[in-house]
Amino acid sequence: METQKEQRMKRIVSGIKPTGRPHLGNYFGMMKSVVEMQDEYESFLFVADYHALTTIHEKEELHNLIVQLILDYLAVGVDPKKTVFYLQSAIPELAEFAWILSTLVTVPWLERAHAYKDALAKGKEPGVALFSYPILMAADILATQAELVPVGKDQIQHVEMTRELARKFNARYGTLLKEPQSFLSEGQVVPGIDGQKMSKSYGNIIPLFADEKAVKKAVMRIVTDSSRPEDPKDPEQCNVFALHKLITPEEELEEIRDAYLRGGMGYAESKERLFNNIMEFTREMRERRAFYENRMELVYEIIQEGNAKARNLIIPLIQQVRESVGLLS
Question: In Å, how far are 22, 67, 81, 156, 310 from 58, measured between CA atoms?
Answer without folding.
Answer: 20, 15, 33, 30, 27
